[in-house]
Write a structure and sequence with these properties.
26% helix; globular; binds zinc ion; Riboflavin biosynthesis protein PYRD, chloroplastic
């Protein structure tokens, strides 16, 4: 019985260290594409002696940072990694070699790497070097961490999440100040984790997007869909400096103001070709802003289910009640919104109840 308990505890510790790897990996959310987010923890005699994560494509991998942190204590230690260590020369040398050189005794892997140039070869290499390798600890968590990276690797398309924001009475909220998109709000947090945000040119014209002025701040790339626009598109939320934060995808040649925004003319304006183009540019994930519910995004999304082009949906329920003089005024402006106070929410079987005071 003592033996059984000991094993159970070892299992718990495995899960514990792997969860720490995932937590470390998340700190680089939004920065690593086209690479995955990866975290690594080195454990020796029950103590964490090294930690690391992959900060950005082109920089060293998680294992390298963790091994550096551990120094000579890595010898005979166990390395936990949320993704199978790589075995190839990419922008950086193979992590398998670094682990072998550091003389770790054991490697615990969250999930195998779907990248065809790695795909289990890293694990094989470690085993051939006499290192014990266990695979699949907290696998679900590791799969969730890199859902976008995995999707791009397997399909050649960006992972797409459809996003909308509703008032409590079910109207779409698409204006800054009306309960959505305040700087520092939920959405600006979410946008930081995505590589790109798709919006229609109508939305681009009508809203102020939270482009941060902070130097070095992580911004998603804004992908503006212009269809049937004529020859000119003006995008007021951009200026000359922030022009590189956006690209325009159009169905015919257009001049964009400010100049400096790159324009691609697509033969076929459909979601499939857009998601492929974004994946080719190194974007793993994209948030599709569907608040412009009557605009050009509707035909783009009409077949998304059939073609499995959208993987996820995010709906924000904003604690405001919107009143407008007429239904047509709901589109962009003309309506008044009343924020609620002392908001509480309850959840029963996925149904969310929100209540608050006017
Ligand atoms: C790891 N640890 O932290 C990461 C891995 O161009 P490179 O050298 O950065 O290689 C990129 C590939 O390496 C990437 O597509 C994925 O297969 C793997 N990423 N592997 O062992 C890490 N970021
Ligand atoms: Zn590596």
């Amino acid at each position: 019985a003592a033996g059984v308990r000991c094993q159970a505890q070892a299992g718990d510790m495995d899960a514990h260290y792997m969860r720490r790897c995932v937590e470390l990996a998340w700190t680089a959310a939004g920065h690593t594409s086209p690479n995955p987010m990866v975290g690594c923890v080195i454990v020796s005699e029950g103590q964490v002696v090294g930690e690391g994560f992959h900060p950005k494509a082109g920089q060293p991998h998680a294992e390298v940072f963790a091994l550096r942190d551990a120094g000579h204590l890595a010898e005979n230690a166990t390395a936990y990694v949320s993704l199978e260590p790589c075995n190839h020369y990419g922008r950086t040398p193979p992590c398998t070699e670094a682990l072998i050189k550091a003389k770790v005794k054991e490697v615990v892997v969250g999930m195998t790497d779907p990248n065809p140039i790695v795909a289990s070869k890293g694990i094989e290499k470690l085993r051939n070097a006499g290192i014990d390798v266990r695979v699949g600890v907290e696998e679900a968590l590791c799969l969730r961490l890199n859902e976008a990276y995995i999707h791009r690797m397997l399909t050649g398309k960006a992972f797409a999440t459809l996003r909308t924001t509703l008032s409590m009475n079910g109207t779409v909220i698409n204006q800054i100040g009306s309960g959505a998109d305040q700087p520092g709000g939920y959405y600006s947090q979410l946008a930081k984790e995505y590589d790109g945000v798709i919006i229609s040119s109508d939305m681009a014209k009508a809203t102020t997007l939270p482009i941060s002025r902070e130097a070095g701040a992580k911004q998603p790339l804004y992908i503006i869909i212009a269809q049937g626009e004529g020859s000119k598109v003006h995008i007021p939320f951009l200026n000359e400096e922030s022009a590189s934060n956006a690209i325009v995808l159009a169905d015919s040649p257009v001049a964009v103001e400010p100049s400096g925004v790159s324009v691609s003319v697509l033969d076929q304006m459909n979601l499939e070709s857009i998601l492929r183009l974004l994946a080719d540019r190194g974007l793993c994930s994209v948030l599709v802003d569907f608040r412009d519910a009557g605009g050009v995004l509707v035909p783009l999304l009409s077949k998304f289910q059939e073609d499995k082009l959208v993987q996820k949906v995010v709906v924000e329920l904003s604690p405001v009640w919107v009143v407008s003089p007429g239904p047509s005024d709901l589109a962009f402006g003309g309506s008044q919104s009343f924020p609620l106070k002392n908001v509480e929410h309850k959840e029963v079987n996925g149904t969310l109840l929100l209540e608050g005071y006017l």
